Amino acid sequence: MSIFNFFRPAPRATAVQAKERLQIVMAHERAGRSGPDYLPMLQQELLSVIAKYVDIDQNKVEVKLDRGGDFSTLEVNIELPSRENGKAGAKPGDADDDLPASKALTNGGIKKRG
Amino acid sequence: MGKIIVMTSGKGGVGKTTSSAAFATGLALRGFKTVVIDFDVGLRNLDLVMGCERRVVFDFVNVINGEAKLNQALIKDKRIENLYILPTSQTRDKDALTKEGVERILNELAQEFDYILCDSPAGIERGALMSLYFADHAIIVTNPEVSSVRDSDRILGVLNSRSRRAEQGLEPVTQQLLLTRYDPDRVERGEMLKVDDVLEILAIPLLGVIPESQAVLRASNVGMPVILDEASNAGQAYTDAVARFLGEDVEHRFMSPQKKGLFSRLLGRSA
């Protein structure tokens, strides 16, 4: 950077916009790339589990992994339909699967703590 | 054992083949026995840029398929001692490049050559992947332009995850930036990304900046690597880049507008 640049009023140069746009788009792309490969599969499986009970719109789902210094957060945003629709969407046959599944989850939690 | 270098970019038309021809010639001029391989199966062009298109009999794919011996396919450059070209097939497609086949040829070449320079095709498909897979060093050719920078970043990601060194957990492929078609006048007018901008975004060391130059087209017209045009800025910039690649500390040139002369260059950017 030449010292003369300091005395020049900075116009909104297109190169500056290029840099800003690149930084934004690439931050996003790098996050996706450094993110584990299981993310799309995780999204699929989460969806299929939720879809068993609730009639959800596949397009109203967002799975995001944010990497911080010490920890990462997995954010899952699913827009559920209004109550009536939700009930209608749940299939009666699924009720049987419900119990063992929740048991397994509880056991897993206890094991971890122990 | 020879070192394997890949000249890659993701994006097409940024100067990979021009840079491969120049760089291979530069390494040979410095006394290293060098071979440059065209990985762009089906879109052969390195032979034209190197000026040996009429001497192609057998090619890389013939050797992979066992239809010819390596020595039959290698073309010895007529101008430079120590410089060889391995052209690719113009008729087959990229599926002809098998990992086993490419590895066998590279191993054989590594016995005899100091440097094996792989000229990657554009894209991130098979040809590009094969050209970078076995690399020890990667030279990322980038234009100061949004799509090229983005694609370079993408190819850096591929190098870090899908190269042999990445897959086998070895020391990573070294990565250096070769910024080509740089126009200091347009940079000064704020119309083009600065070297520093691109370096900040890609976060890899700078190997060289090749200024936009009419010498590049003139050289390719006659099948001469532009590095041999010693009077041209581009030729000199490639010579500098080769020296830096070999570990020499050479100051960067041609990064500020020429017409302003030495005075402003001294006051201007020095990195």
Layout of secondary structure:
The complex is a heterodimer of chains A (114) and B (271).
Chain A: H1 14-34, H2 39-53, E1 61-67, E2 72-78, H3 83-89, H4 95-113
Antiparallel strand pairs in A: 1-2
Chain B: E1 3-8, H1 16-29, E2 34-38, H2 46-50, H3 60-64, H4 70-73, E3 75-76, E4 83-86, H5 99-112, E5 115-119, H6 126-133, E6 137-142, H7 146-162, H8 164-167, E7 174-182, H9 184-188, H10 195-202, E8 206-211, H11 214-221, H12 233-245, H13 261-267
Parallel strand pairs in B: 1-5, 1-6, 2-4, 2-5, 6-7, 7-8
Antiparallel strand pairs in B: 3-4
Helix pairs in contact in B: 1-12
Task: Identify the notable features of this structure and list them briefly.
heterodimer; A: 114 residues; alpha+beta; two-stranded antiparallel sheet; 2 strands; disordered C terminus; B: 271 residues; alpha/beta; 13 helices
- Roughly how much helix do the residues of chain A carry, as a percent range? 40-55%
Largest sheet of chain B: 8 strands, mixed
Task: Give the low-confidence spans of chain A.
Answer: 86-114
Spatial shape of chain A: elongated
The helix content of chain B is 40-55%
Distance between the termini of chain A: 60 Å
Mean pLDDT of chain A: 67
- Strand order, sheet with most strands of chain B: 3-4-2-5-1-6-7-8
Count the beta strands of chain B.
Answer: 8
Amount of beta strand of chain B = 15-25%
Mean pLDDT value of chain B = 94
The largest sheet of chain A has its strands arranged as 1-2
Total of helices of chain A: 4
Largest interface: A-B, 19 and 25 residues
